Amino acid sequence: MKDIAEKLNISVNAVSIALNDKVGVSEETRNLVVNLLHPIEDEASYFIDRCLLLFTAGLTQSP
Q1: DSSP conformational letter for 61
Q2: Is the dihedral of CA 3, 6, 12, 18 positive or negative?
Q3: The domain containing residue 18 runs over which residues?
Q4: pLDDT value of position 21
Q5: Can you tell me the distance from the alpha carbon of 55 to that of 51, in angstroms, rounded to the nearest whole number?
Q6: Number of domains in the chain
Q7: Which residues pair with residue 25 across a beta bridge?
Q8: Helix axes 27-60 and 12-19, enclosed angle (nearest 10)
């Protein structure tokens, strides 16, 4: 959350409020946080998928 807050120049608390869909931040701020988060999720998903691929490839190779 700290990285998102720094990138958007808002507080970590504002990021938390936006992500938890609580009252206390504007709709614009909420949208900025959510839209910034999606590429991070995609990147993390790619990394996890790549790790799983490499792991399973190692398991299926004969010695």
Answers
A1: S
A2: negative
A3: 2-60
A4: 86
A5: 6
A6: 1
A7: 23
A8: 80
User: Which two structure tokens, joined as six digits, stand for 30?
Assistant: 């909420």
Bridge partners for 23 per DSSP: 25
Q: Are 28 and 37 within 8 A, CB to CB?
A: no
pLDDT, tens digit (0-9, with 9 covering 90-100), for 3-62? 888 989 999 999 889 888 899 999 999 988 888 877 655 566 666 666 666 676 665 555
Q: Beta-carbon neighbour count of residue 14 at 10 Å?
A: 20
Residue of 53, 39, 44, 37 whose CA lies nearest to 5: 37
For residue 48, give both structure tokens: 């996890």
Q: Which residue has the tokens 């504002």?
A: 14
State the pTM of this model: 0.59
Residues in Cβ contact with 19 at an 8 Å cutoff, skipping those fewer than 6 apart = 1, 33, 34, 37
Single-letter code of the amino acid located at 38? H
